[in-house]
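Pipeline run #58 for the internal structure catalog. This entry was flagged by the ingest filter as a single-chain record with no existing model, so it goes straight to prediction. Upstream metadata was stripped on purpose; only the residue string is passed forward. Reviewer on rotation: M.T. Logging verbosity set to normal.
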Amino acid sequence: MGLLTFSRGGVHPPENKISAGKKIEPAGLPEQVVIPVTQHLGAPSKVLVNKGDEVMTGQLIAEAEGFVSTNIHSSVTGKVLKVDKFPDASGYKKMAVQIQVEEDQWEAGIDTSDDLLTNIDGTAEEIRNKILGGGIVGLGGATFPSHVKLMTPKGKKAEYLLINGVECEPYLTADHALMMEKSARLVVGIRILMKGLGVEKAIIGIENNKPDAIEVMTNATASEDGIQVQGLKVKYPQGGEKQLVQALLNREVPSGGLPIDVGVVVFNVGTAYASYLAVQKNRPLIERVVTVTGKSVANPSNFLTRIGTPASFLIEKAGGLPDDTAKVINGGPMMGKAVAKIDIPIVKGSSGILLLRENEALRNPVQPCIRCTKCVGVCPMGLEPYLLMTQAEKGMWEPLERDHVMDCIECGSCSYTCPSSRPLLDYIRLGKAEVGKIMRSRKAV
């Protein structure tokens, strides 16, 4: 099996997969959960419950509002304490439903058994409706509503389904654990997505630092026509959609385009598993695997976690907050963001909680750019990060748009490699936000 990779840029930071090999462990139920109604790209969901209402596990509590939106379900049984704004991982207050947790009782019609169901009934449209109904979104971090990705735009044709089992972000092992323990169900989930898209071919991409996952998934797909497993060279950010498309198919997604523009749709392994549960078990997306890790963490773990659980609850489950913790990251060290409080709720896009020690979290003093162009060499999108940072710093929004700032996938390779410790990604994110506003306002006219 040859090792493929993308051709432009990329880095290889220390992998630090400390929790690799740890079994998925149920986190249990906290005393309260806070479930935001915006856990996805697109319009916030419309809240259906009020203070004082009794809800059951799996019950719909907020419904999709618009085409690019999705459903939100209660992850617990209990009483609604508040429907109000609560801080999320960004620190901003967002509308959410707070629930006091009681004894776990699931909504009628949801199959909670672990029985493997392999027969896939229903048409492509019925599959899409079940995935919409289950509130399934991209679990690789983008959180784009999955039912929308299954609806091929007019004039486009999907030829391949790519399944992202790369998990190239350092420290995180949630997807790895899922492939090791839920391979048969993942394969059914992939078949469901293939049927929903109307494609005959699927490729599962896994980096070569997970040989056990490659072996398990290869065995699980041995008798499956149209599904293959492909090992990939270890290189960050191979899990980016456009990088994965090039690595596996040698197709180049155009600037400003999407994988469907070259006949491809990409889903994360977590999304495939959630799709299996939604279609075969009528089980909505109310829990996911979350890695809690760090070099000083007593028990780095992969927890099966109910949506809305405070991150602090998981940290305690992993042995508590180490004394030398200087920064808590929502996600991994490359693309994750530091949080101000550790009681932020776990949401659908939460892949990990990383506790960094002071010597790891400390930023070096910012020095002047020496025009070494290392940031250009590692950018997987072929951009000029040093230039984009300067333009964002000076508020030069038109040149930023012209120089394709919106193509940035925010992988952080530029900041990682900069010898002058310049906050390249910080300013590029600022620039993307401002240019995005300008583009949206232009479309609204």
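catalog note: The domain at 124-281 is CATH 3.40.50.11540 (Rossmann fold).
catalog note: The first helix runs from residue 124 to 133.
status: ready for reviewer M.T.
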